[in-house]
Design a protein that fits this description.
Elements lengths: L6 H14 L9 E2 L5 E2 L23 H11 L6 E5 L5 H10 L2 E6 L2 H14 L5 E5 L12 E4 L3 H14 L5 E5 L10 E5 L2 E7 L19
Parallel strand pairs: 3-4, 3-6, 4-5, 6-7
Antiparallel strand pairs: 1-2, 7-9, 8-9
Helix pairs in contact: 2-3
Length: about 220
Amino acid sequence: MISPRKLPLLTLFVGLLLASAGGPPGYAQETDTLGTSAPPIPGLDVVPQSQRSDVPYVPTSTPVVDKMLAMAGVDGDDLVYDLGSGDGRIVIQAARKYGARGVGIEIDPDLVKKARKKARQAGVSDLVEFRQADLFETDFSDATVVTMYLLPSVNLKLRPKLFEQLAPGTPVVSHDFDMGAWKPEQKVKLEGDIVYRWTIPSEVPAHLQDDGSEEEAP
């Protein structure tokens, strides 16, 4: 009889054997966001492709969140949209610190649930909401501030949609990644992190009237 203490090790060993052999029938492999093939752990549900993000979830630290909101000039009259909102920390902080309303757009249902729970715990559920949605299929035209922590390629793909939907004068703030040929008005470094700020122009410059597919700026 196998000691109960050894069961977790035995389960791990069997799982590794199944992974190396390609797994039993129906044992699907998923590709992670960096493009490498990584078999899921047996017994855990695999998130459907339609609910996976193109961007790995990496939380933004509180100092960076505060700097993003400050650079955007958020106040109690704002409606802040965070695109790829993760656990909701940016819009929750905007509500808690400034009394702003907020909407988080996140494709991962587990992160949406976590964000809603955190909003309840922070006492700001009346000010914020979290939607499970693809940001490229989302209407955020009522935003007065947009924040994001995505990837350079995603920023470039998103840029035309920002110009199309947002009113002139709307601030856009990004953690760590820029917008290619659209040069930021502000760029602030915070101990290894960078925060960028742009303002939606009244007329989109000719060199930005494209699909955002050019190489990102160095």
